[in-house]
Structure formats: C-alpha cells, structure tokens
Amino acid sequence: MNSSEATNPLGLSTIPSVSSEGLVPVGRRTSLRSYLAALWGRRHFILAESRAKMSGSTRKNLLGYGWLFLNPLLSVLAFWFIFGFILQSSRGVPNFLGFLVIGVFFFQFTGKSMTGGTGAIRSGASMIRGFQFPRAALPVSVVVRNFLDFIPTAAVMLVLIAVIPPTEVITWRVVLVIPVIVLQTIFNVGLACLLARLGHKVPDLTNFMSIISRFWLYGSGVFFSIEDKLSNHPAILAAMQFNPIHAYLTLVRNSLLYGVDSPAWLWFMAIAWACGLLIVGFLFFWRGEESYGRL
Amino acid sequence: MADSELEEPNIVAENVQVRYTVNTNDPGQRAKGLRRIGNAMLGRRGQTTVRALRGVNFVAREGEMVGIVGANGSGKSTFLRNVAGVEQPDRGRILVRYQPLLLGVTAALQPALSGSENVRLGCLAMGLSPEEAAEAFDYVVDLSALGAAIHRPMGTYSSGMGSRLRFAIALAARPKIMLIDEALSTGDATFAERSERAMDELLAEAGTVLLVNHAAKVIQELCTRAVWMHKGEILMNGPAEAVAEKYRWWAWNVAKGKDDIADKLLHDVVSNAVKEEINILEPELVRDPIPRHAARTVKKTVASTRHMKRREAVDEVEETPAPLLAAAESQVWPEEIATELPKAKFPALPKPASQAVSAPRIHDEPPPLRLRPSKKRVVLRAADPSDRASSVAASDDFTGRRLASRARKIADERYQERERIRQDEAPPTVHQDSGR
Fold first, then answer.
1. Mean pLDDT of all residues in A37-55
2. Which residue intervals define the domain ABC transporter in the entry (chain B) (predicted)?
3. Residues B23 and B45: beta-carbon distance below 8 Å
C-alpha cells in the first residue's frame, strides 16, 4: 500500500492485490427471504420503535393519551352536527350515530397509517444513518404503533355503541370484527410500505396526502351510505364499492351494528385488497432498499 | 507497513465515485430557455452536479486505525457514509468483512425519549436481543458516565453528552468495524480517555476503525495510518505522523493566507502521489476463469476435469528428463525432437480456500453481514468424553477467554505506548506553528 512499494525492480508499478475472500458488498439489498428473516429478527426493535413514536408524540401534550380517545370522539361530534343535524344525511340510515362512530374510528386507523407511512423514511433519518437494519421496519412500526393506539380506542368505541340509545342487534357476528381488524391491519402495512417509498422519492407527496386522505374519507361512506346517495349513478357506485375502506366499514357495521350476514363478495374483496396490497407494497419498498440513505 | 500486508483486509473500496445533483443559485449555472422559466416557476435557480468522490481506492486491514484528514467538503463524511452502506456509490464498489457502524455528528436518536430508553432502542436496532440489550445496559451507562442524566430526555443533552451516549451504545454491540465521523471531538478529556481505551480493545480484537477528525494531533496520536482527502480524492496515504504533519502544514498556510506556499505544497503532494489502484482477487474468478459463454461447449462437470488435467501434467514432467538429457549430450540440437515436449506448465497453485469442499457454492447468496463474527463456539472434543481436556473445554470457553485476555494485553500495550509518547512529547517541531 505504501508508495515506496508501488514500484518493482523493473520500474513497473505493481498494483496491490487483495483477496475478496470473505468480503461482502456493503448495504446491498438482500434476497427477499433473508430480508424477511432479518425483519423478523428485528421484531423487538419494531415494537420498541413504535412505542417510542407513541410516547414521543403524546408526551408533549397535557392530556397525553387522552387525545387518543378525544380526537375521534370530537370528530364524531362534528360530523354528526354537520351531516346528521344540518345536512340530514342520516335519513335512511338506521342507528346513524353508531354508523358514524364506526366509520370515524376505523377510517382513522388507515388514515393515520397512510400519513405516517408517507413520512416514515424522513422521520427515521437518524436511525437510518446510525444503524443498519431492514428499512421496512420503519413503515411497519408506523402501523404497529397505530394498531397499539387503535385497540384501546376500539374498546371505547364498543362501549359507546352499546350505550348510545338506538341499541344494536347483538349476535354471534360481533366476533367477525376481529378478522376485519386483522385484514385492515395487513392492508395498512402494505399501504404504509408503498407510500413510504413513494414519499421518499417524491417529498411533495406529504402535501398531496392530506387531500387524498380527505377525498378518501368522503368517498368511503364514513358519514353517509353511498348505496343510498348514488343509487341513480350505477357506474360511480360500482367504482366506490371497489374501495377497500368501504368494504371494511361495511363488514364491521353489518356484523356489529345490524347483526346481519355480509355478502361473500365483500369478504372476498377485503381479503384480496389486504393480501394484494401487502405483497405489492412490500415488494415495491424492498426494491428501493438501497436508496433510503440518500435524503 | 509491510507486515500489515499480511493482515486480512476488513474494508476494500474500489474506484468509488459519488455524485450529487443539488440546487444552486450560482448565476453561471442557470438553465437556459424553457427550463429556466420552469425553474423560475418552481422557485428554483438552477441545478449542478457535485462530484463528492472521484474514484477512491482504499484498503483497511485488521487491527488498523486509519485517520482521514482533509478540508471541509473534501468528501470524508460521504466516504464514511458509503462505507457504512447508508448510501450506495454511483460507481465502484465497497466490500467489507463485517457490517460497519457509523457514528455521525447527529447524535440524538429519539430526542423525546430518555437516555436509557435510547440505549435500549439503539441496542435493538443493532440486532441485539432484548436480553442482550438488558445485559449491555450497565456497560453503556458505565462507559458513557452520564450519571443521573441518563434518565432525562435525550433532546435536553448537550452535544458532548449526546455523542458520549451514542458512542457507548455503538460499542455495546461490540462491532468489528467502526467509522467515527467527528463524533468524539465534542467529548471532554475524561471521556477521551475512556473512548480511546475502548477503541484499543476493539483494534486488538482484529477490528478496524476509520476516524475523521479535524485535529491532526488526534490523528497522529491515535492512528496507525492516515489518509489525506482533497476534493474527493485520496492525495496521500501513509504513516499517520507524516500525513498529518503535511496536512497541518498545508492547512496552516491556507489559514494564514499564504496561498502560494499552500498551492506549492499541494502540487508537491499531488505530483508525488501514486494513483492507487487495487486489484481485487475474486474467489469466483479463480475458480472459474473461463467466461461462461466460452465454456459452453465443455459443459461437463468442470471441477472434476480440471483435477484430472492437473494430475496429468505432473506425470508428464516426471517422465521427460531422460530423453532431454540424451539430446543435450550430443551438443547439437536435433533436427526435430522425437519425443513430444510437454507444454510449458505453470506450477500448480495451491487450491484457493474457496474451492475447499466446505466452502459455500459460488452462486449462493453471500451470508448476511453481521456486526461481528457469530458467537458459535468451536469446542474441540476428544473422542473419549471422560478425557480431562475435552471436559475442561466444554465446561468453559477456554480458548475464547485466552484470546480475550490476549486482546486485553495488546490494548494495554497500545495504551501505555501512547501515554509514553504523550509524556515525552517534544516541544513543537518545525511545522507545528501553534494556532491549533
């Protein structure tokens, strides 16, 4: 390596040789299998990271965890005042308040995962620069964090529905809420992964996201029944019914509020969206693994 | 440095080039025509490409601590980020033996969390299990010496405290390769002492440290070798003393505005610089020298035929001497040689380790990078289980403990050596004109 050793007696410069035995290119994307194994190996990190995000955001507020419940409750109140009281969109919807509560609480789960996923790489910049771990841990931890937030709020939601006057029909179908939550969580993981890479590539997406999120909120039938309002636009209705959030909301409302069976195609769509987006989103994120260090 | 050639390389960087496209408001770089209007609408002035690294070749071996000096913007941090794998170079490649750990200037991991929670989070991010993280906790708290401050939010720490904690967390995973980018320059004297000892231990266990520091004195004291980077290239590579000395002299002249001397110095260094190249011997190529498209006709089990050939060659050499000697006696070259001369053969090289039976197959994916070798212990057992030696080895990791004590001894020697140098350090020599 020394400059004095760089010439041999013939005056030719010798190029030092090193064997690449046992050396591996650094920071390269690994195969999907070992990537998944590495991600599983960091499961404790994902949990710790999501707890860190949770307490990091709530500690600054005076009410702390209280906002987890207050925020959706206040939005339910606001939506009820505007849509139920002033615009009278509650006509034709039995048990409108319960309908609204389920819509707002379940939509916020996906909505928060969406905005959190978009900024996951940017907000995890110090971790990315400091340590080498599968970067998918960041969007996954966003969803895990929102899931941990969601579970206690869902319990509050159940109490609310039970207490509010027009009582729901309780059948064995209440149990079906659990698979729906699982499917929606899987869907959120796929969504967060997809948006994490897009948001890293196109930082402008964070501005765009609030608009998309609002449009989705209105289009998913959170505070009106799209079947009633769009009955004379069959094309738009079909497109709206393809919306995954609408599927999840309808499934929950049917099983929890009305105690009726949901059509099979609704279940099929819920499963297809969850698995499809998980595969597409995760593969898309994995393919960009090497690029997340550059900000 | 000749003996260091024998050590295994831990980091090999070959022709690493990095470019960044960044916004600029340099009037000379403005876009023309329509693009200018477009840029104006987006509130941009123009874009330019910065070549942060222009072909860096670099090897760092086991037990080496390499200092990197250079002016601001010479590409030191970019190089470290690339070695750590945070970014990928645009051209060239970087090979490492273990996953390097980068210690940057931005120390706070999660500013809202307390120091102790950050310790746990950092340990888990490095891939430690929760039990290991709990075990390492005391070590980290001890090394960082933060006292009660460990329970306060990390966002309230001073920069020195933050980098102390960050360094201690990094060492908790006992990494083999550490890249330190200015991270220790904010620590105070007591911490400098602790961190040096910790790094000595790391080096003694065949680790490698790359250290970026603007104080050339620190580089001189700590490093075995130094590299001077200038505008994305390595200008000088040699013993830490010499390189740091040259750099200090140049920096001093630049600082004093003596540009002519500084330029001349730089010119001297550049003209003396040997454009370093590295020849990376690929185990794959050694094993399969024929390109795949050329080898297509002889697709039969390649490895076994080659074994056959090699054995044949040896046989022929043993047969030949007799007819050759007979021809030499007549002193005349015969018109034609009756016997077929064997073709010139190169001595058969010893089999590279990659061809050993136990070696992984070449088209297999490389194993995932770890911070350090895996903990699996090799315990040699005698055939007789009642044998005393084997029971001793099994009951306690004897070899591992002996190696550890040896590493400790080497670390102590390094430490004493450095103390000795510091004590009888002569008053400033020729170039060390104060100021720093």
1. 87
2. 29-256
3. yes
Chain B positions in Cβ-Cβ contact with residue A31 (cut-off 8 Å): 365
Best mutation target among A17, A24, A34, A200 (most B Cβ atoms within 10 Å) is A24
Q: pLDDT tens for residues B85-112?
A: 888 898 888 988 888 888 876 656 788 8
Confidence of residue B79 (pLDDT cuts 50, 70, 90): very high
Roughly how many angstroms between the first and final C-alpha of chain A, as a whole number? 34
With CA atoms as reference, report the closest residue to B162 among B146, B178, B148, B173.
B146
Selecting from B1, B88, B281 the residue whose C-beta is nearest the C-beta of A19 gives B281
Tell me, what amino acid is at B99?
Q
CB A43 within 8 A of CB A51: no
- C-beta atoms of B85 and A132 within 8 A: yes
Alpha carbons within 13 angstroms on the beta-carbon side of residue A69 total 14
Side chain identity, residue A96: F
CB contact under 8 A, A18 and B279: yes
Percent of chain B with pLDDT over 70: 64
Give me the DSSP letters along B70-134.
--TTSSHHHHHHHHHTSS--SEEEEEESS--EEE-S---SSTTSBHHHHHHHHHHHTT--HHHHH
Q: How many C-alpha atoms does A267 have within 13 Å on its Cβ side?
A: 9
A165 at interface of B, judged by CB pairs closer than 8 A: no
| CA distance to A7, A55, B125, per residue, from B164 (Å) | 44, 24, 18
What residue of B is the nearest CA neighbor of A40? B127
B296 vs A167: which has the higher pLDDT: A167
In chain A, what residues touch B119 (CB-CB under 8 Å)?
none
Report the alpha-carbon distance of residue B295 to residue B298 in Å, rounded: 6
> Are A26 and B96 inside 8 Å of each other by CB?
yes
* Degrees to nearest 5, angle at CA B114 with B113 and B119: 95
Q: How many CA atoms lie within 13 A of A105 on its CB side?
A: 27
Q: How confident is the model at residue B307 (pLDDT cuts 50, 70, 90)?
A: very low
Please give the pLDDT value at position A156: 84
Nearest C-alpha in B relative to A36: B368
Q: Is the pLDDT assigned to residue A184 strictly greater than 90?
A: yes
- How far does the CA of residue A132 sit from the closest CA of chain B (Å)? 7
Asked if the Cβ–Cβ distance from A26 to B95 is below 8 Å, we say yes
Verify whether the Cβ–Cβ distance A26 to B279 is below 8 Å: no
Strand B101-103 and strand B177-181: pairing? Answer: parallel
Neighbour-count burial of B172, counting CB atoms closer than 10 A to its CB (0-12 exposed, 13-18 middle, 19+ buried): buried
Give the count of alpha carbons within 13 A of A104, CB side only: 26
Confidence class of residue B159 from pLDDT cuts 50, 70 and 90? Answer: confident
> pTM for the whole thing?
0.76
Confidence of residue B5 (pLDDT cuts 50, 70, 90): low
Residues from chain A contacting residue B125 (CB–CB below 8 Å):
42, 45, 49, 127, 130-131, 133
pLDDT band at A136 (very low <50, low <70, confident <90, very high): very high
Reduced to 3 states, what is the DSSP secondary structure of residue B418? helix
C-alpha to C-alpha distance for A33 and B368, rounded to whole angstroms: 11
User: Encoding tokens for residue A288?
Assistant: 């960009």
In tens, the pLDDT along A65-91 reads 777 778 888 888 888 888 878 877 777
Q: Is residue B329 very low, low, confident or very high in pLDDT (cuts 50, 70, 90)?
A: low
